[in-house]
């Protein structure tokens, strides 16, 4: 269970590792969630937790990139 202090929202979901998370070009709402369809000034997981008291249920981890090929170097 996640403990909550005054004015301190802590979630176990890390939005930056979710496929639905994105950075917007909107300076008033720089963080977005494609799954829930909103942009916010706060990280989406914190907004979900504040609104519902539950962790984000739509979290889907990004797939790890595999290194393959020459790494983009010039081949002579």
Topology:
Elements: E1 21-23, E2 31-33, E3 38-40, H1 44-52
Descriptive account of the structure:
This protein has 76 residues and is low in regular secondary structure. Helix content is 12%, strand content 12%. The termini are far apart. The mean pLDDT is 83.
Percent of residues in helices comes to 10-25%
Mean pLDDT: 83
- The tally of helices reads 1
Share of residues in strands? 5-15%
Strand order of the largest sheet: 1-2-3
Low-confidence segments: none
Run of helices and strands? EEEH
Number of strands: 3
Profile the largest sheet: 3 strands, antiparallel
How far the N terminus sits from the C terminus, by CA atoms, comes to 56 Å
Features:
single chain; 76 residues; little secondary structure; 1 helix; elongated
Describe, in short, the structure shown.
This protein has 76 residues and is mostly loops. 12% of the residues lie in helices and 12% in strands. The protein is elongated.
